[in-house]
């Protein structure tokens, strides 16, 4: 039995929690070991990551998958959402005691002639709704490549609407990759549950996203990181498209937060375990540090149906010496990472 105590975010109230298996309790637990005390978060979340393959097109490798997931845990990530994997994952994915809880959408679903060779499943428009619904019935999510790069035709609105309706009918959710204005509009008008990337999207759609509950996972840090390299390339329509969209992306993120859109932190990057980079990028775009941290913790967990640091909640937590909202660099130095009621990482102090 373990115990943690301190100020729990988001509200900063003092809590004293014990892990009774994989659930937090405030009741007395005899002989519970005080693992850490400080500032407590209910575990970090990477809402857009694709573990298990080193490069686009690679096969899913179970050893690589474990390594990637351990990198997440080292960074304090106790929950991931993988909107697209190189293949269906092994049975231990998401339940192994030393790796994060996981939500996933299986392989990506794409139109013919689009997406990375060797990854995903290509489908005709007529079969896309039923394929997406079958995937979501198995795993809770389906991921559709709504558009591809600068010139790929987006999935038509009537098809995407049928996909969303079919997935919702089986109790699932739809994530849509989009980096074009046209594809972003299709995703929002179709009622997708989350827009992944959202580069070049019309800010005029943000009010509708907020109203219908469509989340935005902007993967801002990886775009910002790639921008200098893209700028160094020879001039082309594709280069101008990417530079224009990536430069405007921080403004879109800030506007989304202001409009009440739920923003989720996702890294979409290798090496894994770089959630701090995304939180920094969200704050740098103009989100309050409190909200940027929420996008990678309690709000993202709520989006996935997980309560925070309260009795009966899953026993995940990350403990820091200081309030990470006033110093985001604290995220790089957790005192302890608790996953499923077990201390998987502990840094002894004093």
Automatic annotation (TrEMBL):
Coiled coil: none
InterPro entries from the UniProt entry: Amidohydro-rel (IPR006680), Metal-dep_hydrolase_composite (IPR011059), Metal_Hydrolase (IPR032466), Metallo-dep_Hydrolase (IPR051781)
Pfam families per the UniProt record, alphabetical: Amidohydro_1 (PF01979)
Keywords from the UniProt entry: Hydrolase
UniProt GO molecular function: hydrolase activity, acting on carbon-nitrogen (but not peptide) bonds
Keyword set includes Hydrolase: yes
Domain Amidohydrolase-related: 40-344
Source taxon at top rank: Bacteria
Protein name according to UniProt: Imidazolonepropionase-like amidohydrolase
Organism this protein belongs to: Saccharothrix saharensis
């Amino acid at each position: 039995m373990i115990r943690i105590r301190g100020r729990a975010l988001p509200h900063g109230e003092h809590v004293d929690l014990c892990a009774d298996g994989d659930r937090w309790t405030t009741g007395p637990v005899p002989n519970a070991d005080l693992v850490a005390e400080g500032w407590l978060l209910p575990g970090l979340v990477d809402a857009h990551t694709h573990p298990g393959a080193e490069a686009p097109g690679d096969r899913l490798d179970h050893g690589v998958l474990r390594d990637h997931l351990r990198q997440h845990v080292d960074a304090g990530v106790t929950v991931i959402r993988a909107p697209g994997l190189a293949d269906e994952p092994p049975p231990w994915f998401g339940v192994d005691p030393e790796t994060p809880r996981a939500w996933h959408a299986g392989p990506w679903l794409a139109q013919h002639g689009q997406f990375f060779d060797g990854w995903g499943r290509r489908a005709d428009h007529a079969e896309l709704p039923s394929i997406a619904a079958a995937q979501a019935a198995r795993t809770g999510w389906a991921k559709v490549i709504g558009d591809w790069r600068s010139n790929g035709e987006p999935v038509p609105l009537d098809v995407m609407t049928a996909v969303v309706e079919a997935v919702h009918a089986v109790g699932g959710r739809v994530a849509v990759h989009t980096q074009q204005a046209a594809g972003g509009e299709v995703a929002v008008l179709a009622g997708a549950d989350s827009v992944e990337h959202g580069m070049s999207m019309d800010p005029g759609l943000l009010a509708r996203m907020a109203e219908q509950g469509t989340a935005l996972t902007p993967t801002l840090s990886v775009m910002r990181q790639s921008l200098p390299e893209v700028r160094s390339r020879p001039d082309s329509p594709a280069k101008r498209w990417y530079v224009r969209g990536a430069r405007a992306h921080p403004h879109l993120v800030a506007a989304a937060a202001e409009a009440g859109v739920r923003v989720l932190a996702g890294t979409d990057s290798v090496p894994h375990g770089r959630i701090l980079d995304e939180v920094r990028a969200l704050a740098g775009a103009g989100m309050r540090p409190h909200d940027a941290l929420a996008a990678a913790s309690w709000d993202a967990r709520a989006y996935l149906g997980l309560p925070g640091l309260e009795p009966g909640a899953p026993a995940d937590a990350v403990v820091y010496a200081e309030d990470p909202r006033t110093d985001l660099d604290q995220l790089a130095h957790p005192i302890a990472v608790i996953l499923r009621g077990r201390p998987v990482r502990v840094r002894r102090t004093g």
